Inverse folding.
C-alpha cells in the first residue's frame, strides 16, 4: 500500500466522478437510480452491521457506480472501474474500523438526499468529503506503519 498511489487514484476519481455527478443530474430523473442508491446503501448497512467487509465493499462499489452509470458515459465508467480496482485493498483497511463504517453509512444517506434534490453542487461537495474522509483515515494508517 502506498500513500502516493492512493492520493493519485483518489484525485483522478475526484475529477471523473465530479463529471459523472454533473452528467447524471443533467439528464431527466430516472426513479430507478434513486431506488438503486437506496438498495445499495441498505446493503452497505446490513453488511456493516454483520461485520462482513467483503459484502460491504461490494455494496459500496454498487452504490457509487449507480451514480457513475447514471451519467450515461460508458468510457468514463470503465476508467473509474479501473481506478476502483486499484484501491480495493485500501477499502478493507478503512472498513476495518467501525467508526469509518458508520461514517460511510451516514454519508451515503446525505449523498442520496443531494441526488434526490438534484443539488449538483451539494452532491459534488458530499462526494469530495466522502473520499477525503477515507484518504485522511488511510493516510494516518499508512503513516503509522
Amino acid at each position: 500500500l502506498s500513500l502516493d498511489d492512493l492520493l493519485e487514484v483518489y484525485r483522478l476519481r475526484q475529477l471523473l466522478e465530479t463529471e459523472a455527478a454533473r452528467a447524471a443530474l443533467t439528464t431527466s430523473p430516472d426513479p430507478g437510480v434513486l431506488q438503486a442508491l437506496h438498495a445499495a446503501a441498505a446493503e452497505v448497512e446490513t453488511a456493516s452491521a454483520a461485520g462482513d467487509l467483503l459484502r460491504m465493499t461490494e455494496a459500496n462499489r454498487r452504490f457509487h457506480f449507480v451514480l457513475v452509470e447514471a451519467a450515461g458515459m460508458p468510457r468514463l465508467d470503465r476508467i473509474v472501474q479501473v481506478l476502483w480496482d486499484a484501491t480495493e485493498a485500501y477499502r478493507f483497511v478503512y472498513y476495518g474500523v467501525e467508526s469509518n463504517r458508520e461514517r460511510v453509512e451516514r454519508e451515503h444517506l446525505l449523498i442520496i438526499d443531494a441526488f434526490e434534490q438534484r443539488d449538483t453542487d451539494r452532491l459534488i461537495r458530499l462526494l469530495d468529503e466522502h473520499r477525503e474522509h477515507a484518504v485522511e483515515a488511510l493516510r494516518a494508517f499508512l503513516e503509522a506503519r
